[in-house]
Design brief:
This protein is mostly beta strands. The chain contains one helix and four strands, in the order αββββ.
Length: 110
Amino acid sequence: DVEADRVVIDNQLLNTDFKGVFSTATPDDQGVVDTEKSWIFFMNSGAEGTFELTEDGVRVIPSNISGKPNYSLQLIQSPISLEGSSTYKVSIIAKADAPRKLTLKVGATG
């Protein structure tokens, strides 16, 4: 039974309810950042926006994203250690007022 052979590891992300303090760290020129076991809100490629904490988690509010890449406003937690040849499960709950594209990236710093 494959299920019986799996090792369950607790959530690798921390502050998953966004109730803890956000880090003020910023990525270096290579995109590497240590978010100090929390999250950062990062704007790049000329995009602008803010975030607010809600009962359900966090809400990202774009104010200038027209023509910007869909990764321009980011919530980042790093570093996260992933092992080769392992299986991971990622789940999120996302809402939007209108159709939006959402990119989720796990691993590969930078």
